[in-house]
Design goal:
alpha+beta, 1 helix, single chain
Length: 233
């Protein structure tokens, strides 16, 4: 069979057509896989408990603990989030950001009141992500490092903290919550904190939380009974 210029031209067009179709199918396959992966990530986030400390979301809230408090989080994408909290006279505040990873979440925080400012970096790690079966309890150990800047003549301190947060769902609406921790550092700094309470899931976007908390460190002691309302966007 003679190979003519016309045959070569037809062969080239056929090859180009096959290549184009294969490329299109490959791109479609990759897009579908990426879409499925994104949907799976969103599904995992939706399945998390409404009080899970590793959730990335946009949420606004208001509360009362002797003063009005305002708080909010802003989800930048599936893995990053900003958060802020302040009371009505701005005497107590908190500002920070979070980065979600496969095994847990990393948080960077600044918070302060009249006696001190604290700068910290730490993490929550769900025990079930490490292969532990915690039954109906959701357990989140936490640990990190911090720097405490003393005010009103108080000393500065560099140290670390450890603690934990737990959730025990009762039914589709009610859950029991609890947390505790200890922080130690230089200049004989010592701090302990803890709290217990419950949350009520009104809808998939709204919830109410009631907590009793206690904290004491080298600068002051706080006892609070707080109630808060949150709405997710």
């Amino acid at each position: 069979m003679k190979i003519t210029a016309v045959n070569l031209s037809k062969l080239s067009l056929y090859s180009l057509f096959v290549t184009s179709v294969a490329s299109s199918l490959w791109s479609t396959s990759l897009s579908a896989q990426e879409s499925e992966a994104t949907e799976e990530e969103l599904s995992v986030e939706d399945e998390k408990h409404i009080d899970d400390p590793t959730r990335i979301l946009t949420r606004f809230g208001v509360g009362y603990d002797g003063q009005l408090t305002f708080n909010g989080t802003l989800g930048l994408d599936e893995t990053r989030m900003l958060r802020v909290q302040v009371n009505e006279d701005a005497s107590e505040w908190q500002l920070g950001g979070s980065w979600l990873f496969d095994k847990g979440i990393v948080n960077v925080f600044m918070n302060g009141h009249e006696e001190r400012n604290t700068y910290s970096i730490g993490t929550f790690v769900p025990l079930n992500k490490l292969g532990f079966d915690t039954g109906k309890w959701q357990v989140f150990p936490m640990a990190g490092a911090n720097f405490v800047e003393g005010k009103k003549g108080n000393s500065n301190s560099t140290g670390a903290y450890v603690g934990g947060f737990v959730i025990r769902p009762i039914d589709e609406h009610w859950s029991v919550l609890g947390y505790s921790g200890v922080s130690v550092g230089s200049s004989d700094y010592l701090g302990v904190w803890g709290g217990v309470g419950g949350s009520y899931k009104i809808t998939s976007k709204q919830s109410i939380r009631l907590m009793a908390s206690y904290s004491e460190d080298s600068y002051r002691t706080d006892n609070k009974l707080s109630i808060s309302y949150s709405y997710e966007l």
